[in-house]
Design a protein that fits this description.
Blueprint lengths: L4 H4 L6 H5 L11 E7 L6 H16 L3 E7 L3 H14 L5 E5 L3 H6 L13 H7 L4 H4 L3 E2 L2 E2 L2 E13 H6 L11 H11 L1 E2 L5 E7 L6 H11 L17 H15 L13 H6 L3 E7 L3 H7 L4 E4 L11 E8 L5 H14 L2 H11 L6 H4 L2 H9 L5 H5 L12 H16 L5 H16 L4
Parallel strand pairs: 1-2, 1-3, 8-9
Antiparallel strand pairs: 3-11, 4-5, 6-9, 6-10, 6-11, 7-8
């Protein structure tokens, strides 16, 4: 299950169905809550989620949970805000952690801290990985709870490494190594056409996220913690973009914009030897790669690191107090160590707490399949996923600049100056 497979799936739940849930509590003192989950209807993930909801209701007979499968993450945030304005929001929703500032600005969510009352509640809230809390807290409050979270990792084909005379157990450690390995792993046919690329970093959908693997490892942070200021024109950011562009110019990375959704398929078909993608693709790769593969941390330059990614639970401000309490109980139940461990094994997402990695299930899985621990180990060096106020438009300004540089219509320096100017204009009122 990919972190952003959701972005690729067709929308199957209509807006009318998604918005038509009332806020009424059921008879016999049962509290009804609706739960927006970002995936299209059908498929194994909905069965898993339906099963979890049923198990929760069995353990909490006073609460009825209705999951609503609400399409992609983008479609889900639009539906959430539309329903919020109409006065019929879902009680709880899984949305991108980067939607936090947007949800705060729309006055659509309540802080989680208000529901944390017992010692057990406090221990639970303090138990998440600190890297995941960077996109969950601001202004001294906790606004979201990590659920399906990820980092970007590098998958590589060990068989192709051997063929190219590279050590299959020593993936590239830094930018120079990455370029050298990519050069050896690039193959051409008799006519000079590339049949196998050395490395592929997708740049469609959310180029900013993959770009953060380069800015982070070059020791640059794209936005401040308050989400009011960006540094796209920082020389270290420009240098990171230049490196990405230069991989294409060197003929070891596909030219132009590379599709997010087809990158894993290219890897399975041996059209590419190394790919940067979400750890949320781990189960997909494990099930579909017909060759020995490795998973590695992102090669560093000035440092190691990756942005985190993925979705958080958020609780609606317009839900009744009883519904909010029920939603809190549901989010807490869903993120307990045993459940987080199972979810990680089923999907490839990073389990959200060290306690989850202490469970028998995940300890055994990690012993049998060490690749599952790479993303977790990378958390020690991870940074917050890029997020600001007016996030969608500011992110678009950055994405447009990245794609302009990758397609050669602007130099990296010019592209980042233009993106900076647009972001400054959008963020002026938030400073």
């Amino acid at each position: 299950m990919q972190r952003k497979t959701f972005h690729r799936l067709a929308l199957a739940a209509t807006a009318a169905a998604a918005l038509g849930w009332g806020n009424a509590a059921l008879a016999q003192g049962t509290t009804e809550i609706t739960f927006f989950y970002p995936v299209a209807v059908g498929g194994p993930i909905t069965k898993t989620m339906d099963g979890l909801a049923a198990d929760f209701m069995k353990a909490n007979p006073g609460i009825k949970v209705t999951p609503v499968y609400s399409g992609t993450y983008q479609e889900t945030i639009v539906k959430m805000l539309t329903a919020h304005k109409a006065g019929t929001p879902p009680t709880v929703a899984v949305l991108l952690s980067t939607d936090m500032f947007t949800l705060i600005d729309e006055d659509a969510i309540v802080p989680i801290d208000g529901f944390v009352k017992t010692a057990d509640d406090k221990a639970w809230l303090n138990g998440f990985y600190k890297a995941f809390m960077m996109n969950s807290q601001t202004g001294g409050k906790t606004w979201g709870v990590p659920f399906q979270r990820s980092t970007v990792v590098m998958f590589y084909n060990k068989d192709l490494f051997k063929e190219a005379g590279l050590d299959p157990n020593r993936p590239p450690e830094n930018w120079a190594d990455l370029k050298t390995a990519a050069t050896k792993l690039t193959k051409k046919d008799a006519s000079g056409k590339v049949t196998q690329w050395g490395v592929q970093i997708p740049s469609s959908g959310f180029p900013y996220w993959l770009f953060q693997t380069l800015t982070t490892t070059n020791d640059a942070i794209l936005a401040n913690d308050a989400g009011t200021q960006v540094k796209f024109d920082d020389p270290k950011v420009v240098e990171a973009l230049q490196y990405w562009v230069d991989l294409g110019k060197a003929g070891v990375h596909p030219p132009g914009v590379v599709e997010w959704g087809t990158t894993p398929k290219d890897f399975f078909e041996k059209k590419v030897a190394m790919m940067f993608t979400t750890t949320g693709n781990l189960t997909n790769v494990k099930n579909n790669a017909k060759f020995d593969f490795g998973v590695a941390m992102i090669p560093g330059n000035k440092r190691k690191g990756s942005p985190t990614g993925g979705g958080n639970f958020f609780i609606s401000k317009k839900a009744s107090p009883a519904q909010q309490e029920a939603a809190f109980k549901f989010a807490k139940w869903m993120t307990q160590p045993e459940r987080a461990a199972e979810w990680s094994i089923d999907t490839g997402y990073v389990a959200v707490s060290p306690a989850a990695y202490g469970t028998d299930a995940l300890r055994k899985y990690g012993r049998d399949f060490p690749a599952a621990l790479v993303a977790r180990d990378q958390l020690a060096n991870s940074v917050a996923e890029f997020s600001t106020h007016d996030n969608q438009r500011v992110t678009k300004a950055l994405n447009d600049g990245l794609q302009a540089a990758l397609t050669g219509t602007k130099t990296p320096a010019q592209a980042m100056q233009d993106s900076q100017r647009e972001a400054d204009r959008l963020l002026r009122s938030y400073k």
